[in-house]
Amino acid sequence: MGGITEPLIINDKLMDELNFACDPVATECVLKNGKNISVLTGNNCLTAFFSEKEFSRALLPSKKPIAEYIIQNTKYWFKDMMDNFNIDGFHNWDLVAAAFIAEHSLFKHKCQNTIIDPEKLKKGFFNC
User: Fold this and answer.
1) Are 23 and 118 in contact (CB under 8 A)?
2) Per-residue confidence of the chain (128 residues) as pLDDT tens digits?
3) Which distant-in-sequence residues (6+ apart) come within 8 Å of 21 by Cβ?
4) Among 22, 17, 19, which Cα is nearest to 5's?
């Protein structure tokens, strides 16, 4: 999970890429030398949006301790997205990556060669 193929715009505001750009040298090494690599970019994950209402409706009725743990440990996500992007929810990038690992059949696969540009990786850009 990382990289962007075009600017990541949320509610008309640019969001910086948060994974590949953190360590572009390591990213380049993995992308050039890894085997059987799959990349889910931030752009791919924009459809995984969870509103606070939807999130609460799914978790609040549960009596399981894990539900309460998730609620308590994700409250800041909603606040951060409201403060920074004025939206009442968040895009759950990591859930998309976990779903891809757990169930490939949920996704359309598109194999292609990529161009790895170390300078563009500094901003998280992954060129296809």
Assistant:
1) no
2) 899 999 999 999 999 998 999 999 999 999 999 988 888 899 988 988 999 999 889 999 998 999 999 989 988 999 999 999 999 999 988 888 899 999 989 888 887 778 889 999 999 998 76
3) 121, 122, 123, 124
4) 17
Q: Cα–Cα distance between 36 and 19 in angstroms, integer?
A: 19
Contacts of 41 (CB under 8 A, 6+ apart): 2, 3, 4, 5, 126
Nearest to 30 by CA among 73, 67, 59, 1: 1
